[in-house]
TrEMBL record:
High-level lineage: Eukaryota, Viridiplantae, Streptophyta, Embryophyta, Tracheophyta
Main localization (coarse): membrane
Name of protein: Late embryogenesis abundant protein LEA-2 subgroup domain-containing protein
Transferase listed as a keyword: no
Keywords from the UniProt entry: Membrane, Transmembrane, Transmembrane helix
Amino acid sequence: MPKSAIGQERRTNPFIWGAAIICAIVTLVMIIIGIIVIISYFIIHPKTPSISVSYANMDRLYYDQMGNLQVQITIVIKAKNDNAKTHARFYDIGLFVGFSGMEIAKLQNKPFDVEKNNSVEFNYLVNSRPIPLKKLQGDFVQSSFRKQVIEFDLTGKAKTKWRVWVIGSVKVLLNLDCNLQFFVPNGSATPYSESHYCSSKSS
């Protein structure tokens, strides 16, 4: 009676076993690192630095019969770092003061650092030359005089970076978009003006 033949068992190549073990070790290490990063994030709880308008005042407003506008505005920009473990750096700062869709001035600053749990303020004096306005813009000025409130826009961007333990350097783009309202003629900010609470948003 013929006997059934049993083939020899195939043995796995040692290199395949070695590669599988290495992959398993690497995967385990990555999981451990991920857990450490997540735990570190919740322990340190890093906060994104910000820029904001802490004060604004319209010092002078002049509009003549020829349709020329001249304005002087004081704006205080605050750079804030709420992180308790590390300083933050602010750079590539470019903010624009506008009126009725027209750019009046550009606010710039050199790169600077803000220490942990600290803030720094910068005073800007916007002093424009006489600006010829179009009819629609002139009508807007006259309407503002009647309402005794005039509006300006403060928009722009800045970049910030700071170090987070384990994660490393973190870079964020800050966007500022504020509507500044001032009483006419005294120039003080209205209670509804964003000069009291306007802050950047990160992206």
